[in-house]
Specification:
EC 4.2.3.1, disordered N terminus, Thr_synthase-like, TrpB-like_PALP_sf, single chain, pyridoxal phosphate, threonine synthase activity, about 475 residues, alpha/beta
């Protein structure tokens, strides 16, 4: 332990900002700045504190590009659309990234040699015909961010923020995580030959996700607390040691996570869906996607905004409670409790950013219970796609929005699926075996749940037995 800290402080005292890194920071300061979402204070990158909070009001920062305000320096929308498509046929790793091929709209790294990429992004936009038919919708799609290299949407943000960390000269990066962030951070740090520290809540993480962090070489510490407790500990660690924080409070994470908005528009021939529905955990996804859609409209790349809505699990619903109680003016943390571990967060860091996006796009916030999540996950699986439990809140929430007539049958809706189905296979197996939900939880949806369960059937090893089961199932 002492050697670990000695190494860290040797880095801090040994001028780990190399000359080229300092030059890069100076160049990037001319391209972007950071504005506090609370008091609107503007700073440059070198003035960011370790916890990415404003010294004046304690709120988070957002990256902005002042040159876009000058008409003569605004990006040319038609040229950009052509350029982004051309890059898809390039053999350059930077061009083949679904994040960095849009780098014209996230100029946060001065030297492309510092970009750390695993060919993230460029994820599929699937049609969901069964679910659309069941809900009476003309068109329903799913943007599957679970098809990223480590199996979740976190990769798009991690490639951006970790590339910034590399350019700044950091050797150690860290995060607190319920699972997906730890996997992404560990993978990208390994790719960059950097060291990674991961703090996870003990016993409250899907093992598939934990195995990824281990496999990619992270120093993984399980703390006897919940996710929010991990965040509190890590905030002190980065204050006392030169470790770069890569949770979603980092504004550069959101620059990468806004790029699925660009992909959705491109995949829809530069039109925009009427609705985009996202899961609500730490709420950075809503904030990032909203930022992406707002920037595209501001630059004339698209001509309208989608309504962006957030869906939370009823056991981890601080934003929903805030919107219902006071319109999002204040948020009271809750003790989070849901089987959808990726959104088991009771004190979301980006809640003010999310509220702003809900207001600017005219979206809503809904909550769904454990049975509704489990059923929706099975229904997405029946489309041949699959997703982790937290992703399924989008379909479960869409049902409520349709029921309340907030989504019309003629409107196009995109669900953001944030994680791969293999992220939490224990959840899936328990559902199909009938072991996931308590009897009282499943009761209101028992007929629908029974129709979607596909447990294994044990039979003798004979042709006759197989044919008998086939006949019974086909009847």
């Amino acid at each position: 332990m002492r050697r670990f800290y000695t190494t860290l402080f040797e880095v801090r005292q040994g001028h780990f900002f190399a000359a080229n890194a300092t030059l890069a920071i100076s160049m990037e300061s001319q391209l972007h700045q950071l504005r506090c979402i609370g008091c609107a204070t503007v700073i440059v990158q070198r003035d960011l504190k370790e916890n990415f909070r404003c010294l004046g009001c304690g709120e988070l920062y957002e990256v902005e590009y002042p040159s876009w305000n000058a008409p003569s320096r605004r990006p040319n929308a038609s040229a950009l659309r052509w350029l982004w498509q051309e890059r898809r046929s390039s053999t350059s790793p930077v061009d083949r990234s679904g994040v960095w091929r849009f780098r014209d709209l996230l100029p946060i790294v001065a030297d492309e040699r510092n970009i750390v990429t695993l060919s993230e992004g460029n994820t599929p936009l699937y049609e969901l015909p069964r679910s659309a038919e069941a809900l009476g919708l003309d068109r329903l799609l799913a943007k599957h961010q679970g098809m990223n290299p480590t199996g979740s949407f976190k990769d798009t943000g991690m490639t951006a923020a970790l590339s910034v960390a590399k350019e700044m000269g950091y050797r150690w990066v860290a995060c607190a995580s319920t699972g997906n962030t730890s996997a992404a951070l560990a993978a990208y740090a390994a790719r960059a030959r950097m060291q990674s520290l991961v703090l996870i809540p003990e016993g409250k993480i899907a093992w598939g996700k934990l195995s990824q962090a281990m496999d990619y070489g992270a120093l993984t510490l399980q703390l006897r607390t919940d996710f929010d407790g991990c965040v509190q500990v890590l905030s002190e660690v980065v204050r006392k040691a030169p470790v770069y924080l890569l949770n979603s409070v980092n504004p550069y994470r959101l620059e990468g996570q806004k790029t699925p908005a660009f992909e959705i528009a491109e995949q829809m021939d530069w039109s925009v869906p009427d609705h985009v529905i996202v899961p609500g955990g730490n709420l950075a996804n809503c904030s990032a996607l909203g930022k992406g859609f707002l920037e595209m409209k501001s630059l004339g790349i698209t001509d309208k905004l989608p309504r962006i809505s957030v869906i939370q699990a009823s056991g981890a619903n601080p934003l929903y409670r805030s919107m219902m109680a006071n319109g999002g003016e204040h948020l009271e943390p809750v003790e989070a409790n849901t089987r959808a571990s990726a959104i088991r967060i009771g004190n979301p860091a980006s809640w003010r950013k999310a509220v702003r996006i809900l207001r600017e796009t005219g979206g809503w916030c809904e909550e769904v219970n454990e049975a509704e999540i489990a059923l929706a996950k099975a229904e997405i699986g029946a489309e041949g796609i699959g997703c982790e439990p937290a992703s399924a809140v989008t379909l479960a929430g869409l049902k409520k929005l349709v029921q309340k007539r907030r989504v019309a049958s003629s409107e196009t809706t995109v669900l953001l699926l944030t994680g791969h189905t293999l992220k939490d296979s224990d959840y899936t197996i328990a559902y199909h075996r009938g072991e996931l939900l308590r009897e009282e939880e499943a009761a209101p949806l028992k007929p629908e749940i029974e129709l979607t369960r596909r447990n294994t059937i044990e039979i003798d090893a004979s042709v006759e037995e197989v044919l008998r089961v086939l006949e019974r199932v086909s009847a």
